[in-house]
Recover the amino acids of this structure.
């Protein structure tokens, strides 16, 4: 590879590397959703791109998640990135052939304080000029839409703009699409050092006009000073894929009262402290595991059920069975039906005081990560952001597409 127009334009001096050295306009370190999205933005701008990853295929946070693209309950920069990411996901559905569902998100309310949070959120979105972002339902309407156990359900909400993908299929589909467009992948290749203009790897040096580092929690191994400055740690999750005997499909991701405690968009409700206090009092086992009880359904009909959260500088590989017992008990209570376990796994992602990490530790090296559990939701736009300012006036993001919402809700009494 001789290097593309950006290397020539910026006068990158590669003479000392010899004729056999790799050269690229943009080198992306990390082949998860954020890294692949940076590669997509770069190749859209006409750049020559190399993606480097130490694994043979995606194994990290980008495949160990719910596939829930929850744009609506975000706030601040995360909300803007999530909205742009929704546009990119819809483009990739067409271009890369990945599975995408315009499902929206359902949120069940099983106590009056939870319903109050949803009402406050609906009012806040209406005041912000987006009244269609939240649709509230009474108990009968919600139960007509969502196959949860009727006992205790007071109502709920539907967030129609949200999307869902299959995390096990998405990264492979995007990788194949980028390969068809000429992006080169250096897999089973470790990055051993970063310098302005150069990436040192276990298979040699690559000269780069821009290096995008998108390695999520492993940033502490590659750029420890960046991780320390941002206070990045690891968050481990217990998750399950299960088969439940539901009377009808779960046609959208399902959030519960526990989820209201985790998304910034809900945080402004005065009822949030009451929800937290009550849930912790009523369910100390789940509270001790820092649970976000939520569910998505994959195309094969199985459900992803989770998840717990445990933070530290290292993630022990041992998963306590009582965590899965608590999740399964909560799942059976939520749906009122037996649940069969198909798979168990441990998710790991970066966590930090801020939701997003955007840094440039040295000229020409850009570091980006979602430092909470919103990598799939914000990742495509975060990757795009990483390359945009460096590619200069020639860069123009792909034309935004309108976010197509899920179909209109069922009317009360309809079948």
């Amino acid at each position: 590879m001789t290097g593309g127009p950006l290397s020539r334009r910026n006068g990158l001096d590669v003479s000392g590397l010899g004729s056999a050295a790799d050269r690229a306009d943009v080198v992306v370190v990390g082949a998860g959703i954020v890294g692949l999205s940076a590669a997509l933005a770069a190749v859209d701008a006409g750049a020559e791109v190399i993606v480097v990853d130490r694994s043979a295929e995606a194994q990290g946070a980008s495949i160990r998640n719910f596939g829930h693209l929850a744009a609506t309950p975000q706030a601040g920069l995360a909300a803007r990135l999530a909205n742009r990411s929704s546009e990119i996901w819809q483009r990739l559905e067409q271009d890369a052939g990945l599975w995408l569902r315009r499902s929206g998100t359902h949120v069940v309310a099983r106590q009056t304080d939870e319903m109050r949070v949803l009402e406050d959120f609906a009012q806040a979105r209406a005041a912000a000029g987006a009244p269609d972002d939240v649709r509230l339902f009474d108990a009968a309407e919600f139960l007509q839409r969502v196959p949860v156990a009727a006992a205790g359900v007071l109502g709920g909400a539907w967030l129609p703009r949200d999307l869902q993908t299959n995390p096990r299929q998405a990264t492979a589909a995007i990788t194949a699409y980028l390969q068809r467009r000429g992006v080169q992948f250096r897999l089973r290749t470790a990055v051993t050092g970063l310098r302005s203009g150069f990436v040192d790897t276990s298979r040699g040096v690559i000269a780069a006009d821009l290096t995008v580092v998108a390695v999520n929690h492993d940033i502490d191994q590659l750029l420890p000073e960046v991780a320390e400055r941002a206070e990045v740690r690891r968050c481990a999750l217990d998750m399950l894929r299960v088969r439940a005997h539901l009377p009808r499909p779960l046609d959208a991701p399902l959030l519960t009262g526990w989820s209201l405690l985790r998304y910034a968009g809900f945080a402004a409700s005065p009822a949030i402290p009451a929800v937290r206090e009550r849930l912790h009092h009523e369910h100390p086992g789940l509270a001790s595991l820092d649970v976000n009880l939520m569910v998505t359904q994959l195309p094969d009909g199985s459900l992803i059920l989770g998840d717990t959260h445990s933070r530290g500088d290292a993630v022990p590989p041992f998963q306590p069975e009582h965590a899965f017992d608590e999740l399964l008990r909560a799942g059976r209570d939520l749906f009122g039906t037996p649940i069969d376990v198909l798979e168990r796994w441990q998710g790991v992602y970066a966590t930090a005081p801020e939701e997003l990490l955007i840094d440039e530790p040295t000229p020409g090296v850009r570091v980006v990560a979602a430092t909470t559990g919103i990598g799939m939701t914000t990742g495509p736009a975060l990757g795009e952001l990483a390359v945009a300012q460096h590619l200069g006036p020639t860069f123009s993001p792909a034309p935004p597409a309108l976010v197509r919402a899920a179909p209109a809700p069922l009317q009360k009494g309809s079948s």
Q: What stands out?
A: The first strand starts at residue 22 and ends at 29. Confidence is low (pLDDT under 50) at residues 7-20, 398-415.
